[in-house]
Design goal:
This protein is an alpha+beta fold. The chain is built from seven helices and seven strands; from the N terminus they run βααααβββαβαββα.
Length: 179
């Protein structure tokens, strides 16, 4: 089942584009307090300069340094962000966040699985890494369900002031075992 088939509302992973800026801003604003409970808050400056920051993300994506995806419903609502960043020599770091109202429904797990496939087929990646804070149990479950294994500690510099763990997924091995 693709991420598009999860939950009551059909949704699809779409590559970040300029036309999605208003929906991404609405997603970030409506979930700000929820996200701040698990990860460092982006701060008022992020929202005040959202257009500049969004344009910078698009420039990074165009340069091939990062690839950003959003999970978007048929009506244009963003349910989540799924990012591959620091793409170097077939390796990238994974980051993601989903809207509070779809948590616990398998949305993040399905989208991360789909993104892992895209990482191989569209972006020629062989390894993904992700860091999550110790208290972010939901994110740890997503990573484990999608085949990531814990590789070691992640410090406050990795997680915006929090401590946690790094996880890694060998995409070639994942492809061999998932058939």
């Amino acid at each position: 089942m693709s991420a598009a088939e999860r939950g009551r509302t059909a949704a699809a992973l779409r590559r970040l584009s300029g036309e999605l800026a208003p929906a991404v801003l609405a997603f970030e604003l409506s979930n700000r307090d929820y996200f701040a409970a698990a990860v460092s808050d982006r701060g008022d400056e992020y929202f005040a300069r959202f257009t500049d920051r969004f344009d910078a993300l698009l420039a990074e994506q165009a340069a091939g340094v990062c690839v950003f995806y959003v999970l978007v419903t048929e009506d244009g609502t963003v349910l989540g962000r799924f990012n591959l960043y620091d793409l170097v020599d077939g390796t990238a770091d994974l980051g993601y966040r989903v809207a509070e109202h779809v948590t616990g429904q398998g949305v993040a797990t399905a989208a991360v699985r789909e993104l892992c496939g895209l990482a191989v087929t569209r972006h020629a990646l062989h390894t993904l890494r992700a860091a999550t804070a110790h208290e972010n149990i939901a994110s740890q479950r997503v990573l484990l369900k999608t085949g990531f294994v814990r590789t070691g500690p992640a410090g406050p510099a990795d997680l915006g002031g929090r401590s946690g763990s790094w996880y890694q997924l060998d995409l070639a091995r994942r492809g061999e075992t998932s058939g």
